Amino acid sequence: MALRFNYNKADLTAEVCGIDEGDTIAHIPDTVEYYRKKYTVTKIGDSAFSGCTSLTTITLPSTLKTIAPYAFQYCSGLSSITIPDSVTSIGYWAFDGCS
Fold it and tell me: What pLDDT sits at residue 8?
């Protein structure tokens, strides 16, 4: 599994912006390290997992605050996701096309 991130150096936060095609399970950590700095994962970015039909299970971190629009759109194979209480915003059509 290879998640891709965007890093905000100003507040040391990270957002998930994608995953390798064909991955079936995604475990998103609370923090990621990039150039010897630790970033807190607070967001699933716009369309980050959109169209990942093979993705069946995802674990979201307790640090997550935002699920952006279209984040999981058309993830038709997604059967397990638990949204932590820390999430305060879920964008429009974030789960559009999920069954």
Answer: 97
